[in-house]
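Thread amino acids onto this structure.
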């Protein structure tokens, strides 16, 4: 029998997870000095240069110092391949290693949530929370504000190739736009990024570090939560966590708030006896509360990565493989905080329709002036660009579940990509639209030549198989503890993010989304935390 954990102390709020949502919650809930807040983060400090230089994602993803190094189970839709499934292992979570793209999604996404019966989650409801946290470089208007903690800037480098791709999109009817964040993200434009003066602006940098000056906020790093403790009345009373070889119990007088992300939160719920009874019994975990939806409803954006070789135009591929160019890039960054080292993984975005069946854009292109076999590897030695495209509203659903009673064991991740017929059809149309863009006249002088998946693949069946070969996650898992209305058997949470059946316990992260947003999911997750903090304080009163 394991020894009893040591008493760690009493707090009003215990936040499990110091990632994007957790940093926002820690800041907001500790704003009044009479509330004691404990933030538990299983990762470490962001005291590594590649957490701050924007191009550092190339070195962080796939590095156990920065990444939890998760993998999916073999995916039938991807030819049986296992995918790496990066998640940030540091304060700030995945905002410390992600693409830095500031994207809210479409108004229709949130109106769709409200249409499911989730009061208070429509576009007009959530926009004020995006605005509250925003510190945008552009002048304030109806859609942007300055003075918040979440800094938004424009890219500090441009590429002729990307400008011409934008011309190509315009030539086939996709207009140029200067802002994807007004509720309608149709068109092409350069992404806005979470950077400040050429440095990554993570949730830890914006929200957590300023708040750590407060005496009522305590951060514990390298603290791995094992389970949530509940009493006989189905109330969360605290958490058990380990730190090194020691185990501790921290008591929550008001609430425990899970913010461990779409991968971590369902695993912790299950380890705490909250989930599907049959699954818990198989693991040898006593059932505290039956909740069929825990770990289900996983949605993720599968990105297909067509690559085109080019000639007569600069790409990052050749710059990377020339030592003097790399030295020049380093000097440019050191002296002016500009140039390729400030690059997000993608600079140019295109939102388009795969067919006329969709009222709003259902595709997002991330255009990159480089190509590589996978993140973490060097770019190819020939000049090329990548026209990554993802289905914004996948019909396929997967799952994430605990694989063991060991809280340090990696969870079982099964995205189930391309399992729905609709997703296969959209994948085929996506590749064909990418080819249409590459064939447009503004790019003719660069002689684009399809490298992947290969121009010889033309039939629907061939392109579905090709999508499985070149598809990979774009790192947007959501939905594994979704909000839902009374009567929805798969709804883990109510519309105020409270775990159904367990008092004083909430889940506040991307796992709460009932349906994935139409774009990058980091800022929507932080919006959820911003709104949740207000609800938590209101409910406590």
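Threaded sequence (541 positions):
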């Amino acid at each position: 029998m394991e020894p009893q954990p040591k008493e760690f102390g009493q707090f009003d709020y215990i936040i499990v997870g110091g990632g994007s949502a957790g940093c926002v919650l820690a800041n907001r809930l500790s704003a009044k000095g009479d509330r004691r807040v404990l933030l538990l983060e299983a990762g470490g400090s962001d005291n590594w240069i590649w957490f701050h230089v924007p191009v550092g994602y190339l070195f962080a993803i796939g590095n156990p110092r920065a990444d939890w190094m998760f993998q999916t189970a073999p995916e039938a839709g991807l030819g049986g391949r296992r995918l790496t499934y990066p998640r940030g292992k540091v304060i700030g979570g995945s905002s410390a290693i992600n693409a830095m793209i500031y994207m809210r999604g479409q108004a229709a996404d949130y109106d769709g949530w409200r249409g499911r019966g989730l009061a208070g989650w429509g576009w007009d409801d959530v926009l004020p929370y995006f605005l509250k946290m925003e510190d945008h470089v552009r002048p304030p208007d109806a859609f942007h504000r300055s003075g918040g903690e979440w800094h938004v800037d424009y890219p500090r480098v441009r590429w002729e190739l990307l400008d011409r791709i934008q011309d190509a999109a315009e030539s086939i009817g996709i207009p140029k736009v200067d802002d994807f964040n007004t509720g309608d993200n149709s068109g092409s434009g350069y992404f806005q990024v979470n950077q400040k003066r050429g440095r990554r602006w993570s949730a830890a940098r914006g929200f957590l570090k300023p708040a750590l000056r407060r005496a009522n906020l305590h951060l514990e790093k390298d603290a791995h939560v094992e389970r949530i403790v509940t009493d006989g009345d189905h109330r969360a009373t605290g958490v058990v966590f380990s730190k090194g070889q020691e185990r501790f119990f921290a008591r929550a007088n008001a609430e425990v708030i899970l913010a461990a992300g779409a991968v971590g939160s369902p695993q912790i719920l299950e380890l705490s006896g909250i989930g599907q009874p049959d699954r818990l019994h198989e693991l040898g975990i006593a059932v505290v509360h039956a909740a069929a939806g825990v770990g289900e409803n996983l949605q993720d954006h599968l990105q297909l990565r067509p690559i085109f070789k080019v000639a007569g135009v600069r790409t990052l591929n050749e710059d990377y493989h020339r030592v003097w160019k790399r030295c020049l890039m380093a000097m440019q960054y050191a002296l002016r905080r500009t140039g390729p080292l400030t690059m997000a993984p993608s600079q140019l975005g295109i939102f388009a329709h795969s067919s006329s069946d969709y009222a709003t854009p259902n595709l997002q292109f991330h255009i990159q002036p480089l190509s590589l076999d996978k993140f973490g590897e060097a770019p190819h030695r020939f000049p090329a660009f990548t026209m990554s495209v993802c289905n914004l509203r996948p019909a396929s659903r997967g799952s994430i579940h605990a694989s063991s009673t060991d809280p340090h064991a990696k969870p079982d991740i099964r995205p189930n990509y391309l399992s729905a017929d609709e997703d296969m059809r959209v994948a085929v149309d996506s590749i064909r639209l990418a080819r249409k863009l590459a064939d447009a006249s503004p790019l003719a002088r660069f002689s684009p030549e399809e490298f992947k998946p290969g121009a010889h693949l033309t039939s629907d069946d061939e392109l579905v198989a090709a999508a499985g070969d070149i598809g990979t996650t774009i790192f947007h898992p959501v939905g594994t503890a979704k909000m839902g209305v009374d009567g929805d058997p798969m709804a883990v949470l109510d519309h105020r993010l409270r775990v159904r059946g367990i008092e004083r316990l909430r889940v506040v992260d991307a796992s709460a989304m009932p349906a994935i947003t139409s774009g990058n999911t980091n800022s929507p997750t932080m919006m959820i935390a911003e709104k949740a903090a207000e609800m938590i304080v209101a409910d406590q009163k």
